[in-house]
Amino acid sequence: MSRAPLPYSSKILELFKNPKNLGRMEDATVSAVAGSPACGDIIAFYLKINEDEVIEKASFESYGCAANIATASITTELVKGKKLEDAWKVSWKEVADEVGGLPTLKFHCGILSVGAVRRAIREFYKRKGEKPSWLHDELTSEEKHALEEEELARVLSKKLATIQAKKIGRK
Amino acid sequence: MFESVEKLIKAHERVEREVYLDSENSSVVPAEVVEAMVPYFSEKAYGNPTVTHKLGWMAYETIQKASERVAGYAGASSIEEVNFTPSETEANNLALIGTALANRKKGNRIVISEIEPLSIIFSSNILEKYGFEVQKIPVDKEGFVRLENLPSAVDEKTILVSIMLINHEIGTVEPIKEAVEIVKEKNPEALFHTDASDAYGRIPVNIENLGVDLMTLSSYKILGPRGVGVLCVREGVNVERLLEGQIGTQKLWPGVENVPLIVGFVKASELAFKSFDQNVFRMRKRRDRLMSGILERISETVLNGPRGDKRAPDNVNISFLHCEGEALTIELSLKGVYVSSGSACTRLILQPSHVLTAIGREFEEAHGSVLMKVTRYHTEDDVEYVLKAFPQAVKRLRAISPIKGGAG
Lengths: 171, 408
Known about the structure:
The complex is a heterodimer.
Chain A: H1 10-17, E1 30-36, E2 41-49, E3 55-63, H2 66-79, H3 84-88, H4 92-98, H5 107-128, H6 141-170
Antiparallel strand pairs in A: 1-2, 2-3
Helix pairs in contact in A: 1-2, 2-5, 4-5, 5-6
Chain B: H1 2-10, E1 19-20, H2 31-37, H3 39-42, H4 54-74, E2 82-85, H5 88-102, E3 109-113, H6 118-129, E4 133-137, H7 150-153, E5 158-162, H8 176-186, E6 191-195, H9 207-210, E7 214-218, E8 229-233, H10 259-274, H11 276-297, E9 301-303, E10 315-320, H12 325-333, E11 337-338, E12 340-341, H13 354-358, H14 363-367, E13 369-373, H15 380-400
Parallel strand pairs in B: 1-11, 3-4, 3-5, 5-6, 6-7
Antiparallel strand pairs in B: 2-8, 7-8, 9-10, 10-13, 12-13
Helix pairs in contact in B: 2-10, 4-10, 5-6, 11-15, 12-15
């Protein structure tokens, strides 16, 4: 409920103004969503993956703040042209560095982006019915974070709905 | 980090016009107000009002006159009832905690509304921590306090009720007179405080007519300087100081009085009340044009708060579905339009505005909310400029979003 200053880097503003790789991809091999509208941020990633397991194209859509849009955009840049094994290794810190630093309050935007990409990669192998040796069953911290944020949104929305329903009952 | 902010500011391209609509969070101080204040920094009355020399007496006289003026504007019966504080926040903390402490022998129950400003809500949290019982009265869909819930909330142990006169976020004009009657009928001893910061200079505000015991005013909310507020306390009402130190002319707040800011607040009040009806008429006209213009031009929008006379003449609050509020404030900033949002993304704890959730807005509606306040200085052209900027901004952000509404 209280606010914090958000001194964004000029890179974030630039990516917010002119995001790279924006939009739904009709011929995507795989896509993934992370976040929830209740949290105020949701990202969708679309990856076009070729036979050599290289990400040929990556694009995103975002409902969220400027940091969310910028980190999602830079994440598509970071994974584009990479083999899935290397794309998997892209960390949220790399994403944060690449946008010129994130205010602490906005770390979760970078984490959410990376979480979403990893979800997409997992989905790719699940559909393919194989599992490379570098892909572990246990979720990475970024993926867990995405789940936690979604869970928090569910809990808060439920709580809000209960409070509001109770109020209507009191009328 | 700081270097980046410099670049961030520079990244704003030259725009045709700049329109500041964020008077809720900080306001422009008109040149007339600044001019009135300037001499008091280094030319006159810069002494301490409680010290016996010319500059001190000049400061004393200035504060006396300022108190008289404020008492007149607020309907207080004497200057003793006017207490200057460093802002609305301090005045509200005093009103809640100070009044509760001073009257704790009479009872431990406090009643506030669900949509009070954070300085009231958080103060009530402190009281709860120290054994007071706080009850929050809900509001309806337009933000009106449910008066029917008030009688059962007040009993012989209730020492204080605090309900704001106009809500700062959605502009709802609360039925304070009726609320006071209900409270006093149930318990004549219970005190009533109202934060009138958003009402002062916009609707008639008179402590006597309202029947309240304590009333908060804020300087920057009427285009005065930040750093000064007022807590009006009716004669005979006990309030305990929250800070200790050297007490001067202000019995509820220690420290050296800030004469220039007090002078600025009085000047701002004078300007607001000089042509009151005209000012209000003008604000209301701009408000309605802005409100209907946005609602007509942009689909999937929801007005937060009531319409017409029951809404503050300066307040516009609209939710844009499928469009996140923080992003919208930045997009508009790049176009020279400065607004704020109730979105969680602008908050320390990622939860949206408590006012919007209290009136039944879903999280997504709250995240897409934009709060604007017009002033008497805004022109028709300003409003038209904003109406041109908004649809473009909303359209671009909706196009980025994976959540698409009916109209896309």
